[in-house]
Design goal:
938 residues; alpha+beta; globular; Plavaka
Length: 938
């Protein structure tokens, strides 16, 4: 850690230097002839110091840009350079609980910077495409006249089948007025075929012939055995890696070396987020020659049904991506960072007897995989030179790292029986134990020796005979040799199976087991009533029909049930059941974190301990009829901590990802065929789709290059600065009690950005105070006296009195913009506070709520008051108090302006709950109730 402290000052100096350069740029821009600074208003209340990204505009806008795009020349490759080492910190994270504005993340690079070192500069695939176009004297749009024609082509390929495209092109409006150069569908597809073909786009077909052990009844000689002919379609995986690692679109989301990230300079609390922050990459890098770049291969596969009404045809797609690409980019389907590698075979194998059929399917799978990844096996030994996304050439070692799939396929790939763990040697009868000493990891070399010896000494027909080798049987292996992973260097098949949040936790442990056990204990009818009776809320799914009669569940519904299940059980079950449920729910939510730390992994382990300490209550209450918990999905939880340390957080290794990919690469592709020899037609359709997607990204890259080249000479830089925000963006709180401290502008609680619509909803404009007070409206009974007290405290003449006929503009919700919270990802960046009353008509009289499908919702909110509470000191609730939000509003225009300028913005009327006391010893819940004054008023 001395290196971390040593470079901390240098990083701070670089940050100061960057700020100085930004200030100099702004100053020079303000007085320069070719640049202007415009200050634009911001209705979202952003900070005055916030600058938007520089917006580049040519003097003649899109016309000039289009001309330059057509005339773009050879774009030079990036100058040879060494990738800059980031030694200490690469990010600042908002710290909500701390008084400081941010917290540091301390980064430790691979020793001596001997990882991901570039050899020299090169040209990316997009640069080669453009150079080729120039040599052929082609425009940047290739075979198309202009951008408009290209957009039409893209729309036709993406949205229309063959027949529909032919009819569309023959429409008079298109043929006579639009006049595209392609008149028929064949000419259209010829244009697509003329687009630049990248690496990894060509399909290969490998044919198999398997001779079974059943006589062919069609053979008159009665001597020949039945045969089954098969075809496997796939891409070259090495070419796919070339395509992914060299795609300039991924330049800013690509990593080439492992790092270690810590939350403090001493280093005990390590961060596990992206794959390059895990221990696996670091360990493999130590085995390889200095300076090389690792491309961690992430495979995923899952069988899917193509049609339910045409013979139940199925496909088995397998996908490939690399761990160098940031996980948030990999999860975006539109980024095309995960590419279809091929289709695995699903044979009937009617040519084999039932005794052999299962094992022959195992062997076929491994045979197919061996053929499919042969180029990877060869490249993993010596490495291959590849041009990376930043136009630097590296020696890349593609190493098989992760396989995302479900439990049956994990057993298939690891050659294990399906009653065994594919990761450790635990005995089938001990999987329900919580004894880590019995979970010794499987060893690749040892397993291969067993498989090899068994293949050499046993005939397949005696595999399950009485003389089977006892060691082989005890190890729980399937007689497959050689498995596909035998030839893959630096790979450990028993450590590639990352956590499967969907099938193992949401659908497995929670839905298939915990819900069933608790339903037996509580009673099916009672559980159903509990789900039905829960009040509706915009942020929660309301199971208005209960859960008993739902035949098919989705992962989303499982997650929604998890949000409320502990509260349901806490009311109806005994303490031991509650504690066991609490352990499972805590484990699930901790496993879902998108950025893990040593601390959170310790909590994950404690939650699992908690469940195992209390799990026997389900047997005692006869909710679980077995006398053990040897359940594969429960046992899989034992390996979560180690796997997260190896490969980073589990959120992007979920089997939900391939299920989404199936829509494009299997189901849509199948629908585009005529259902005969559909696999070949699917590959042809996909090749056109991939060509369109690739050319779209190429044009986007070309436009970006043009914009960059225009900046020094013809561009006008607009540095957009937002209007100053209100002096304090914390919502002013109008409460009905003077017993508690209220956050006021410039309070020590800090500021928080929020957003509301520019104007209130039409039905909530000019609402009389009488409606706000009414029990049939907002039921804010103390609204007028609380408002009067609030105004007087802020400088309004005490003679001024609000009236029930005064009209206010109200909002249904306010969105609080949260700071970056890596643990929950970038998609969860706001909290929404609702103030939804019963429905109001245009005259602002209360009407029936049945006219709308949105029920009333008046949210509770945590409000920072700064109060001292010994029950919350040292916790995230320190200084917080719960308030009930009744109305979000602005003052009428005729009201006298308060002394403090921020009060002309948004105001909130709340009623307080009681302060926090000790949490419940079983559930950890805090119990609060409405705070009332003497006389029972809020």
């Amino acid at each position: 850690m001395l290196a971390i402290r040593k470079h901390l000052k240098d990083v701070r100096d670089r940050k100061k230097c960057a700020k100085t350069q930004l200030s100099d740029l702004a100053s020079s821009s303000a007085v320069g002839d070719d640049m202007v600074i415009e200050t634009l208003g911001n209705s979202e209340g952003m900070s005055a110091s916030s600058l938007s990204a520089a917006q580049v505009e040519s003097e003649s806008d899109n016309d000039v840009l289009g001309t330059e795009l057509d005339q773009i020349g050879d774009i030079p490759a990036t100058e040879p350079t060494v990738r800059p080492p980031g030694t200490v910190t690469i990010e600042e994270v908002e710290d909500i609980d701390s008084e400081s504005a941010c917290q540091w993340h301390y980064q430790c690079d691979f020793p001596d910077n001997k990882a991901g070192v570039p050899l020299h500069h090169g040209k990316t695939t997009f640069q080669h495409i453009r150079n080729e176009q120039i040599l052929k004297q082609e425009e940047v749009f290739g075979p198309f006249q202009d951008d408009e024609e290209w957009e039409l082509v893209k729309w036709l390929i993406k949205n229309m089948g063959h027949s529909a495209a032919e009819e569309f092109l023959k429409l008079p409006m298109i043929s006579l007025h639009a006049q595209p150069q392609y008149k028929t569908k064949q000419q259209l597809y010829d244009c697509i075929d003329d687009l630049p073909q990248g690496e990894g786009t060509n399909w290969k077909c490998y044919e198999f012939e398997y001779k079974g052990d059943i006589l062919d009844d069609k053979d008159p000689s009665n001597t020949k055995m039945k045969k089954e002919n098969l075809e496997m379609w796939f891409h070259n995986p090495l070419e796919i890696i070339h395509e992914l690692i060299g795609n300039p679109v991924f330049k800013d989301v690509m990593a080439y070396a492992p790092i270690q990230l810590f939350t403090d300079p001493e280093g005990p609390n390590q961060v596990f987020n992206e794959m390059w922050m895990g221990e696996w990459w670091w360990k493999i890098q130590e085995r390889l020659p200095p300076g090389v770049t690792i491309a961690p291969l992430i495979l995923s596969s899952d069988k899917t049904l193509l049609s339910q009404f045409c013979g139940n045809k199925t496909a088995w797609p397998i996908y490939l991506t690399i761990g160098n690409i940031a996980k948030d980019t990999r999860r975006q389907l539109s980024s095309h960072a995960t590419i279809l590698l091929g289709y695995l075979l699903i044979p009937k194998f009617d040519c084999y007897t039932k005794k052999l059929r299962s094992i022959m399917k195992y062997r076929l799978f491994h045979h197919c995989m061996t053929i499919m990844i042969k180029s990877i096996a060869d490249a993993g030994h010596m490495g291959v030179k590849m041009v990376c996304a930043d136009a630097l050439v590296c020696l890349v070692y593609p190493i098989f790292a992760v396989y995302i799939t479900n439990y049956p396929e994990q057993c298939l790939e690891s050659c294990c029986m399906e009653n065994r763990c594919p990761i450790c040697k635990v005995h089938p009868d001990c999987r329900g134990s919580h004894d880590s000493e019995s979970f010794d990891k499987r060893d690749v070399a040892e397993t291969l020796s067993y498989l090899k010896d068994h293949a050499a000494g046993k005939d397949v027909n005696t595999t399950y005979g009485s003389n089977v080798n006892d060691t082989f049987k005890a190890y729980g292996l399937q007689p497959v040799y050689p498995p596909f992973w035998a030839s893959l260097p630096h790979s450990d098949i028993f450590m590639v199976f990352t956590p499967d949040l969907l099938h193992q936790l949401h659908k497995g442990v929670f839905k298939d087991h915990l819900i069933k056990w608790c339903t037996v204990i509580i009673g099916a009818v009672e559980v159903d009533k509990a789900f039905q009776s829960m009040p509706s809320h915009p942020e929660l799914h309301h199971f208005k029909n209960g859960i008993l009669h739902v035949s098919q569940w989705t992962g989303t519904e499982h997650k929604e049930m998890e949000k409320v299940f502990l509260a349901l059980v806490a009311v109806h079950a005994c303490n031991k059941v509650i504690l066991a449920v609490c352990g499972v729910i805590d484990f699930i939510y901790l496993a879902l974190l998108q950025s893990q730390m040593s601390m959170t992994l310790s909590l994950l382990r404690n939650a699992l301990d908690h469940f195992h300490d209390h799990k026997n209550i389900f047997i005692q209450l006869e909710a679980w009829t077995q006398d053990h918990f040897n359940i594969p999905k429960i046992h899989s939880m034992e390996h979560y901590e180690d796997l997260i340390c190896l490969f980073g957080s589990a959120d992007r290794y979920n089997t939900e990802a391939p299920e989404w990919l199936h829509i494009d690469y299997a189901k849509d592709a199948y629908r585009a065929t005529n259902r005969k020899d559909y696999m070949q037609q699917m590959t042809w359709w996909l090749q056109h789709q991939e060509a369109v997607d690739r050319f779209t990204k190429y044009l986007a890259w070309a436009r970006q290059m043009v914009c960059s080249s225009l900046i020094p000479s013809t561009a006008v830089i607009k540095i957009v600065e937002h209007d100053p925000a209100p002096p304090d963006e914390s919502l002013a709180v109008i409460d009905s009690s003077s017993q508690l401290p209220v956050p006021i502008p410039a309070s020590t609680s800090g500021t928080q950005q929020y957003h509301v619509s520019n104007v209130p909803p039409p039905d909530l404009r000019n609402v009389e105070a009488a409606v706000i007070i009414s029990p049939q409206g907002y039921h804010a009974t103390e609204f007028i006296p609380a408002l009067q007290t609030f105004l007087h405290k802020h400088g309004v003449d005490k003679l001024f009195t609000p009236h029930s006929f005064d009209q206010f503009s109200l909002w249904r919700q306010v969105n609080f913009l949260l700071p970056d919270i890596p643990k929950v990802g970038q998609r969860h960046h706001k909290n929404i506070i609702h103030a939804l009353p019963s429905i109001l008509d245009q005259r602002h009289k209360v009407t029936s709520r049945q006219v709308s499908d949105q029920d009333a919702c008046l949210d509770g909110a945590l409000i920072c008051t700064g109060e001292v509470n010994p029950f919350t000191n040292g916790t995230s609730l320190q200084g917080m108090h719960v308030g009930h939000v009744y109305a979000i509003f602005t003052l009428p225009k005729h009201y006298p302006s308060p002394m403090h300028a921020s009060l002309k913005y948004l105001l909130v009327y709340i009623e307080w709950f009681t302060p926090f006391r000790s949490p419940d010893s079983i559930t950890g819940f805090y119990h609060v109730s409405k705070l009332t004054r003497q006389g029972g008023h809020p």
